[in-house]
Amino acid sequence: MHTPLAQVLQERITGIEDALLQIEQHTDAETGLHNIQAHLLNLLELIEGKLGITAAADDLLQAARASRLVHDPIQACLLREAFHRFQKRVASARLNERGRKMGIE
Questions:
Q1: Residue 5 in contact with residue 103, Cβ under 8 Å?
Q2: Is 73 helix (H, G, I), strand (E, B) or coil?
Q3: Inside any domain, residue 90
Q4: Residue 88 main-chain phi, psi, to 5 deg
Q5: Are 104 and 8 a contacting pair, CB within 8 Å?
Q6: What is the pLDDT along the chain (105 residues), one digit of tens a residue?
Q7: Is residue 47 helix, strand or coil?
Q8: pTM
Q9: Rounded CA gap, 90 and 83, in Å?
């Protein structure tokens, strides 16, 4: 059974958003950061490399790292902005060969 790429993307985005909440609420910021890293790595392994997506993922990860250290409204806003940029970029993602071999379509 094949899984649509859109579904995989949505699952990863939801996972990243859940992790962002952990960081923003400082309930478990280190776990949130770890989960963001895992979701990003997993996602980037499944899609064709595009500079815009990779740059947006890097920005999101850097913002998450900075946000986990301090409870600052400005930093939280920067984190959300980075997440929204990543969401916009990943919407144009195309599946790579590895993803197709994993049964994603």
A1: no
A2: helix
A3: yes
A4: -65, -45
A5: yes
A6: 578 999 999 999 999 999 999 998 888 899 999 999 999 999 999 999 889 999 999 999 999 999 988 878 898 899 999 999 999 999 999 999 999 999 998
A7: strand
A8: 0.91
A9: 10
Beta carbons within 10 angstroms of residue 85's beta carbon: 17
Beta bridge partners of 47: 95
DSSP string, 6-20: HHHHHHHHHHHHHHH
Q: Is 103 left (phi over 0), alpha (psi -120 to 50) or beta?
A: left
Structural domains of the chain, count: 1
Residue 104 falls inside a structural domain: no
Q: Does residue 99 lie within any of the structural domains?
A: no
The CATH number of the domain holding residue 18 is: 1.20.120
Report the 10 Å Cβ neighbour count for 15.
17
**Scanning the structure block, which residue is given the tokens 């998450």?**
64
Q: Residue 68: which of 79, 57, 58 has the closest Cα?
A: 79
Q: Where are the alpha helices (DSSP H) in 1-105?
A: 5-24, 29-46, 51-67, 73-90, 97-101
